[in-house]
């Protein structure tokens, strides 16, 4: 395991209680600004890792400086391939906090090298990339994998599992999921006919490397620093951003798997380049084992709210949700969450770690004495990953679980992009009614020089 601690300049992190040297994991961090930097700090605060390498395509950017100052003596790299080449023997695990489109090649290379991987959500951008990551992880069972949907290690996870096992949550037929906060592209002109005009590339940024395996785009500031989430070519929109924090427990514990139908019900401001101002998307999941079919309807956009059942009450916002890189989390007309309809009960839930409650209040009081005890989490999501690297726990969001969840979102984004109704065969994993949509499962061929990452 790890050697001595790296000297820190930040007073908060320097007060972290580190485990003994042989209990710490040597961690390399790829993507060190914005959310990537937050991941690094959360992993370090567990006390279970040494930060042994820092890597970012723009080491000179303002948003990377805080992390560099906190870990001043750690080796620095701009290219993850060079980092692995020069320091591979010193690295046991990696954190990957980069734009959605670039999760895939870094993760594929890390697993091939036997490095444990913590990857921000969504796992990858395309359905096929997710499929390859699931297969790659299965081929390397000794490599620990974890997707960064933090709520999957907190109260919501353990409560949902306990309530499902006890029969409180049963025969679910409908879930309305909602994320009605402002998005970066709100206010943009949806009638555009081309990508933004080329601008001068910042001297500190490796623009070709930033694009990874995707087809070439000319640099524009509206592609980088969080703006990538706006564009179909790079990001996954509101669904990919928040879906894993809202639907992850329902997807796992209701054993939903992959949908048979995905339909864009309503899209406001639909265009071919970036995500709509609001989207209503329906996912139909077939019967499983002894469980009925489920329809999940996703609502995003400022005024695009699901039907609110009687006795709903107040929509709370979990105070532990990490704020976006461009500011504070804004209150919405309805804060992020879901409404779950079962045969006998209706449940109201938030996002991330927020727990479910039974509505209306009269029904909740009636059920009080029937609710099972919910176990407390033995570790948060970051400690869970590092403890799993040491063989002490198993990750709660490995690729076998988080990969199919991310594939659901990939299918939703295809329906958004084409404003279409898709018929999907979960056995063959093909879209059967739309050949162009089926081609988008794989997406364009990788740029020359990146083909190697598409081999399991």
Description:
With 456 residues, this protein is an alpha/beta fold. The protein folds into two domains: 11-150, NAD(P)-binding Rossmann-like Domain (Rossmann fold, 3-Layer(aba) Sandwich); 152-188 and 220-377 and 400-440, 2-Layer Sandwich (Dihydrodipicolinate Reductase, domain 2), CATH 3.30.360.10. The protein is built from 14 helices and 15 strands. The strands form two sheets. It has a nine-stranded mixed β-sheet. Strand 4, helix 5 (103-112) and strand 5 form a beta-alpha-beta unit. Helix 5 packs parallel to helix 6 (127-139), helix 6 runs antiparallel to helix 13 and helix 9 (237-246) packs antiparallel against helix 13 (399-418). The longest helix is centred in the C-terminal third of the chain and has 20 residues, at 399-418. It is globular and about 60 Å long. The chain starts with 10 loop residues before the first helix and ends in a 16-residue tail after the last helix. Mean pLDDT is 94; it is low at 1-5.
């Amino acid at each position: 395991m790890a050697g001595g601690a790296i000297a820190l300049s930040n007073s908060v992190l320097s007060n972290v209680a580190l485990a003994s040297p042989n209990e710490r994991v040597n961690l390399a961090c790829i993507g060190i600004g914005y959310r990537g930097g937050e991941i690094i700090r959360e992993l370090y605060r567990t006390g279970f890792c040494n930060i042994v390498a820092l890597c970012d395509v723009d080491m000179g950017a303002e948003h990377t400086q805080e992390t560099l100052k906190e870990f001043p003596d750690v080796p620095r790299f701009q290219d993850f391939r060079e980092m692995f080449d020069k320091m591979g023997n010193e690295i046991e695990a990696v954190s990957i906090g980069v734009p959605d489109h670039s999760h895939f090649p870094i993760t594929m290379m890390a697993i091939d090298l036997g490095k444990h991987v913590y990857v921000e959500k969504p796992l990858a951008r395309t359905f096929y990339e997710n499929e390859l990551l699931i297969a790659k992880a299965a081929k390397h069972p000794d490599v620990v994998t974890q997707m960064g949907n933090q709520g999957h290690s907190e109260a919501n996870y353990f409560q949902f599992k306990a309530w499902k096992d006890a029969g409180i949550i049963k025969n679910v037929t409908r879930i309305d999921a909602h994320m009605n906060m402002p998005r970066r592209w709100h206010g943009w002109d949806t009638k555009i006919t081309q990508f933004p005009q080329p601008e001068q590339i910042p001297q500190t940024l490796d623009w070709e490397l930033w694009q990874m395996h995707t087809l070439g785009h000319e640099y524009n500031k509206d592609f980088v620093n969080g703006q990538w989430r706006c564009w179909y070519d790079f990001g996954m929109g509101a669904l990919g951003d928040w879906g894993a924090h809202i639907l992850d427990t329902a997807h796992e514990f209701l054993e939903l798997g992959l949908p048979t139908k995905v339909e864009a019900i309503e899209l406001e401001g639909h265009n071919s380049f970036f995500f709509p101002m609001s989207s209503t998307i329906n996912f139909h999941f077939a019967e499983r084992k002894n469980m009925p079919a489920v329809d999940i309807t996703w609502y995003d956009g400022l005024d695009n709210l699901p039907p609110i059942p009687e006795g709903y009450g107040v929509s709370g916002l979990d105070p532990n949700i990490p704020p976006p890189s461009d500011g504070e989390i804004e209150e919405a007309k309805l804060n992020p969450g879901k409404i779950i309809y079962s045969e006998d009960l209706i449940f109201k839930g938030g996002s991330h770690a927020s727990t479910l409650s039974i509505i209306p209040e009269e029904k909740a009081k009636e059920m009080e004495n029937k609710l099972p005890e919910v176990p407390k989490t033995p570790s948060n999501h970051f400690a869970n990953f590092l403890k799993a690297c040491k063989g002490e726990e198993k990750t709660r969001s490995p690729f076998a679980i988080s990969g199919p969840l991310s594939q659901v979102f990939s299918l939703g984004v295809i329906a958004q992009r084409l404003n279409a109704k898709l018929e999907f065969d979960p056995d063959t994993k093909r879209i059967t009614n739309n050949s162009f949509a089926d081609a988008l499962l794989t997406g364009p061929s990788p740029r020359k020089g990146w083909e190697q990452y598409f081999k399991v």
